[in-house]
Amino acid sequence: MKLLTKITLTSTLSKLATVVLFIALLPFLINRVAFQSTNNLLKLQARKVMSNIKNNGIDYYLQGDSTYGSYTLLKDEYISLEKAKHIYTADTIQTAPRIIEGDTVQYRILNQAFEYNNHLYELEIGRSITSISQYNGPLQKIAFYVLGMLIMLTLLIELSLTRILLKPLQTIIQTKLINPVFPFKDAPAPIHTTTDDFQHLDATLISLMTRIKEDFDRERAFTSNASHELMTPISILQTKMENLLLLNNLDEAALGKIAEMMKTLNRLKKIVHSLLLISRIENAQYAKQDCMQPQQMMAEITEELLHRMEQRNIQLSVALQPSVTIINVNHDLLFQLFYNLINNAIRYNKNNGTIHISDALHTNGSYTVFIKDTGIGIEAADIATLFNRFQKKHTTEEGYGLGLSIVKSIADYHAVSLHIDSVPGTGTTISATFLPIFITHAHLSG
Amino acid sequence: MKVLIIEDERGMALEMEDFLLKAGYLCDLAFTARQARQQMEQGPYDFILLDLGLPDMDGLMVLEEAKKICREASYIILTARGKLEDRIKGLDLGADDYLPKPFSLLELQSRMQAISRRKSGLKDNLVLLGDFTINLSNRTALYGNTDVGLSKKEFDLLSYLLLNKNRPLTRMQLSEHIWGGLSDDDYDSNYIDVHIKNIRKKMTAYAPADWLQTIRGIGYKINL
């Protein structure tokens, strides 16, 4: 998920949570405020009653009776005063129901006891709270609308501000992380920003990229130099040995030794060749402008390798679609790739075994070549290290363990994914899958 | 045939000279571009073998210059630089062939002969081999007028052995000639034996092929 999306989401969620909490707490808050002000009102009323009694005497209310009561027309307020034998309610303010003329109403009630002329009296003043709680619903609704609108507004502002703030990061990602295709052609340009963090990130990335480019250039130069420096002495040795072999007065033993030396030199030569090949592929020194038809290429390769199959009586069957063409690849490299794979399928096969080469055009447009052998197979644990350089499992076999490294380099260079499926003792299937962009199919292209 | 070897590695140049002298060529050596220019001005050459890695001048520039002085010569570029662009540029500048180092001297001679054949413009290039006739132009081995039916690889092998007749060729030299460009995993090529067996089988069906000798522990040789 993008940072901007995350920030927006977090901000929205936290705001929503706050608003929901506030709206949920709203009735409680309103009640608290309402009770507070009702309490004050009731206390004020009580003080007024007390001052009336003080100034005008208790009969101002009682007028000879033992009780007095009065309520307003809508019964939202009432007052009662009575003589009491003993105090059964302390001075309190509470919420309780009262029945007045048959109606049960919830009241906020103040009870106060006092002594007048050696008699105990109890004063009770009530104020209805139904009128208060009936506002809760509408208030919540209003709060919901107002806050919702505020959230939308702040979100819009935040979103555009964050977008502006994060723009340098976006530029860094675009220009430094996604777009540059390795190897980088030029040194990357610094971005313009006043945010220290981004400046730091950008500077670090630029220095990293510059270092990679330098290392890459150095490696390229090394490859070229190493190629020259190693190949020249090997050439001299080879030509000297060849001339030696042509001397007439050599006995069989000497000839044999020279042949052995040439064989060893050839091994050295092939190792250097292979390492240089891998290095050149990894340095992208091969153009990818050819197209190749798998069926045709397999025919060429199997012709090259036919004698090896004959020697071990290995049966080959090839079933490939003639309509498939792979484009924008390097023909020679792919030839090498499949040559090595098929060569392995022969080398690690059993005598009288079979090799089956088939393909599949997938619905998403990708294309896979399968090379299936009935060979000795590969242990599951060894598959992961199979493509490592100089990795040889079968030490009795000829080879120096670079064949599959070459395969891997070529595959990576062409974005081909390799998959190995193997049952030890039964056989191995190697599949090479090309991305849809490299595939044209005669029926599709007309 | 006169050959100018332009190569700054003396060891290499001397071995090439040694080999080509035995093969009947006349050789001159140049270790720098300056020496090469002097040599070229003195006399015409049939072949100029040019190493691209000269100390005093870029090899491709030497080639450009040489083409003006020795117009008639055939050029083979020898290089250990191994850059693909070099190969393409070299051939664009008019080189006749390109051999990456390290190369086999036998291969060098075979390329030189191929160029000579091409330039001589002979329609049929026939070589006698025992009771057989080898046509190097259309790549067939004939017994009388009958095609023996060698495969492409088999013919490659036979003609290479024939080209280097009376010399022992190791299996390695033979396999390098046939599968030279591929970096496969094998450094021991007993696969050559399969081809030789097939060649013998196909040819002895018509006439004895005892000119093709096996040299134990080394390889093969055509004795003529």
From TrEMBL, chain A:
GO cellular component: plasma membrane
Chain ranges of the Histidine kinase domain: 225-434
Reactions catalysed according to its record: ATP + protein L-histidine = ADP + protein N-phospho-L-histidine
Record CDD domains: HATPase, HisKA
Keywords from the named record: Kinase, Membrane, Phosphoprotein, Transferase, Transmembrane, Transmembrane helix
Organism superkingdom: Bacteria
EC number assigned by the record: 2.7.13.3
Gene Ontology terms, MF aspect: phosphorelay sensor kinase activity
Keyword Metal-binding: no
Keyword Transmembrane helix assigned: yes
Record-annotated membrane-spanning stretches: 12-30, 142-166
Compartments, record wording: Membrane
InterPro entries from the UniProt entry: HATPase_C_sf, HATPase_dom, His_kinase_dom, HisK_dim/P_dom, HisK_dim/P_sf, Sig_transdc_His_kin-like_C, TCS_sensor_his_kinase
UniProt enzyme class: transferase
SUPFAM superfamilies xref list: ATPase domain of HSP90 chaperone/DNA topoisomerase II/histidine kinase, Homodimeric domain of signal transducing histidine kinase
Name the record gives this protein: histidine kinase
Organism: Filimonas zeae
Automatic annotation (TrEMBL), chain B:
Keywords: DNA-binding, Phosphoprotein, Transcription, Transcription regulation, Two-component regulatory system
DNA-binding segment(s): 124-224
GO cellular component, one term: cytosol
Any one GO molecular-function label of the UniProt entry: transcription cis-regulatory region binding
Residue positions, PTM 4-aspartylphosphate: D51
Record GO biological process: regulation of DNA-templated transcription
Keyword Transcription attached: yes
Superkingdom field: Bacteria
Occurrences of domain Response regulatory (ranges): 2-116
Domain (OmpR/PhoB-type): residue spans on this chain: 124-224
InterPro entries with a match to the protein in the record: CheY-like_superfamily, OmpR/PhoB-type_DNA-bd, Sig_transdc_resp-reg_receiver, WalR-like, WH-like_DNA-bd_sf
SUPFAM superfamilies reported in the protein's UniProt record: CheY-like (SSF52172)
Any matching Pfam family: Trans_reg_C
Matching PANTHER family: REGULATOR OF RPOS
Name of the featured protein: DNA-binding response regulator
Species: Filimonas zeae
Lineage start: Bacteria, Pseudomonadati, Bacteroidota, Chitinophagia, Chitinophagales
